[in-house]
Amino acid sequence: MLPAYLIISSLITGFIYPVVAHWAWSSTGWASTANPNAFLGGVQDFAGSGVVHMTGGVSGLCGAIIVGPRIGRFDEQSKTPIPLPGHSSVLQVLGTFILWLGWCGFNMGSTLSISSVAVATQAGRILMCTSLSGAMGGVLTVCIDRFTSPSRAWDVAAMCNGILSGLVSITAGCATTATWAAVLIGGTGALVYTSASSLVLKAKIDDPLDAFAVHGACGAWGVIASALFSTDTYSKGGKGGLFYGDGDKLGAAVVFILAVSAWSATLSTAVFLLLSRLKMLRDTSHLGGHKVVERLDDSQHAGQAYPRSSGTASAVTAS
To answer: What is the distance between the alpha carbons of residues 130 and 279, in angstroms, rounded to a whole number?
Structure first.
């Protein structure tokens, strides 16, 4: 419900995320490359695969576990998942391309200024790496889904999530990796996304937006990828990743992933459990003995978000 959303959003943006940002980006952060005394030289997370996306993805997974699956998401007898598609593929595609455009600005903007030709050149290369990784993530994901899903169809939703997976994966290393590596990072991100999404579903966790698979798992992969593919030429201090002879960055990345996961999971779980105890996560005021569940648009917001054909009831009967 909306009050619970506002509470958890405020906690993440006001407390959980700033602490992680301090760890990785502050001049005194224990994992910051700007700190000369950082752990193993610091973690290379230029625009936030770990700081931003993994933090939110792990918190989202904890919330999905505690809230529980939506009514009708899993068959009551076999426990197999039942597809619950979104109401508008058009809006999903539109949202994906808006995000892609914003991603280019966010990753390029993480240079913080264009004060010289060198920085402008870096920003241009960041744009190229970002776009290549997002495109590769989308293409490979939709191909994987086409040949592994029961429907054997070209699913635009898979393409959209694949694009986001590629974008998340390159966010950490967009400034420090070569363009050819960006393609490989985005393609691997597609594999990470599809694997994580499948594992979450097999665990009977209902993650409606695949938030953990896209942001949590691919965010962690992005941090690892940066530690592997960052080049001597583009990295701060002239020291690249593992494939360029510096294994310390991989060690720092692994420890950083574990620390962020533990921090985000602990605090978000505590808040979600409290909200659950206060009965703020699910609206049960309209759930009667006959198990008819109204849409939240009707029961909470006095309006309609989805179009309805004439004669369509404003309630969904639960199985």
So the answer is: 41
pLDDT tens, per residue, the chain with 319 residues:
789 999 999 999 999 999 999 999 999 999 999 999 999 999 999 999 999 999 999 999 999 999 999 888 998 888 899 988 887 899 999 999 999 999 999 999 999 988 899 999 999 999 999 999 999 999 999 999 999 988 889 999 999 999 999 999 999 999 999 999 999 999 999 999 999 999 999 999 999 999 999 999 999 999 999 999 999 999 977 889 999 999 999 999 999 999 999 999 999 999 999 999 999 988 766 555 444 456 677 777 777 766 655 444 444 444 4
Give CA torsion, residues 30, 36, 37, 38, to 10 deg: 30
Q: Using alpha carbons, list the distances in angstroms from residue 269 to 70, 118, 263, 272, 284.
A: 19, 44, 10, 5, 22
Tokens describing residue 242? 């593992």
Three-state SS sequence of 166-213 = HHHHHHCCCCCCCHHHHHHHHHHHHHHHHHHHHHHHHCCCCCCCCHHH
Beta bridge partners of 81: 74
The pTM of the full predicted model, rounded to 2 decimals, is 0.91
Report the CATH fold assignment for 2-277: Ammonium transporter fold (1.10.3430)
CA-closest candidate to residue 138, choices 90, 100, 101: 100
Contact partners, residue 194, CB within 8 Å, separation at least 6: 141, 144, 145, 148, 213
Rounded Cα gap, residues 292 and 165, in angstroms: 36
* Domain positions in the chain: 2-277, 286-319
Tokens of 308: 């309805």
Q: Which residues of 135-171 are buried (b: 16+ CB within 10 A; e: fewer)?
A: bbbbbbbbebbeeeeeeeeebebbbbbbbbbbbbbbb
